[in-house]
Amino acid sequence: MRKMGLLLCFVLTAFKIGAQPLTDRLKVSTNGHYLQHTNGQAFFWLGDTGWELFHRLDAAEIKQYLDNRAAKGFNVIQAVALAEFNGLRKPNRYNQLPLVNENPATPNPAYFALIDSTVKWSQQRGLYLALLPAWGDKVTPHWGDGPVVFDSINAYTYGRWLGNRYKNNTNIIWILGGDRPAVKDSNDWRPIWRAMAKGILDGTANQCLIAYHPWGGSNSTSQWIHKESWLDVNMFQSGHGGGHDVPCWELVARDRQLTPAKPTLDAEPNYEDHPVNPWPKWNPDNGYYRDYDVRKQLYRSVFAGACGVTYGHHAVWQFMSAREEAVNYPDRGWMNAMDRPGAVQAGYLRRLMESHTQLNRIPDSSLLLTPNGRGGEHMEACRDEAGTYAMVYLPIGRKIAVNTQSIKSAQLSCAWFNPRTAQTQAAGTMPNTGTVTIEPPVTGVGYDWVLVIKQSR
């Protein structure tokens, strides 16, 4: 096939990232696999983990962080009210503790005033705040600072208080869990989470969207609570301890097969600049996850059918600075880390997905006539049900063959999207014979690409 050398800048005018304050809530799409605004517009979740946001930053720093994330295209910030690191006993930057006498039934309004302001600042910047009422160690005693303070009674009281406090804020998403399982061995914490969810539902008059953030490994929320009526969105955590190229695409595929259909996403893939496999003791020779590792996981989980994905940086989630004790060997402070390449490139993924129809997007491995490989070589493909486009993510640049029979057009237009730069290089127009064999502009490890095949008009 003929290759064209013209380099085209990726079109940004089709969408406006963070340009308008949020005025409507989110809901699950009709087919159950995606999210949309209440006005019907598709919503692609691009999250960032700012877990210790309320606990470790002051107002000026929070605004700086939100400005940075909105400018890069993030539209969801995941943050915790009762923080992980001594969150009940170490005050925030304004010397306020979240609970009176460590009792969830008596929250301290002075502490939550900063969260109130952050909700408003987020809305002004076009950001949804995915609010965790508590990190999981406040419920589940396996590890962490704790202390465990919740039971089914005060979990409901606290959930209802929170729900009522933020019932008029349309940019709130609720996330329960906090890096913990809902069930482990003979321990079952579902009654506590169920009570907290009921409290939030009652406090918001059922005007809310609720997810659950589990710990890492092969489990997602779907293994414990998929059929709970209060759960709207499944999540999993492909995490940082399983090495490179954890098969996040398999977890997405598993969740998409369940009934009733619910959206799913990787809420914590490997963080940029996180040490590889740091538990129980980090071997420095393992190195760090870098932007290439991040891109591979983000794209493959989304192309496998997730409703979006969450990026994270190892220094940013903990807001590492000279004020704080470092957790798991961060290699820089949070302000230095905000502009790392993976954070910029995460925004390119959202731009790509929003430039195509979303609510009828389906994963389709039958598009790949070339074996899709394993681990770092694994490719993922998706298309829309209407047959207007197909996309293939290649973690390693290589020649591939693609089945184009699902694209309803006599002529095809091909292009290579560069996840590293957001530039698109045209690759020609040709008759749709049912198969396209094509090679990206640069091949080899480290050169990942997205092949975009569209109807040619």
Automatic annotation (TrEMBL):
From the UniProt annotation, give the residues forming the signal peptide. Answer: 1-19
Record-annotated Apiosidase-like catalytic domain positions: 29-357
Cite the SUPFAM superfamilies for this sequence. Answer: (Trans)glycosidases (SSF51445)
Instruction: Supply the Pfam families for this chain.
Output: Apiosidase (PF13204), Collagen_bind_2 (PF12904)
**The name this protein goes by in its record:** DUF4038 domain-containing protein
What Gene3D superfamilies does the database record attribute to this sequence? Glycosidases
Q: Which domain of life is it from?
A: Bacteria
Q: Where is the Putative collagen-binding domain?
A: 362-453
Keywords, A to Z? Answer: Signal
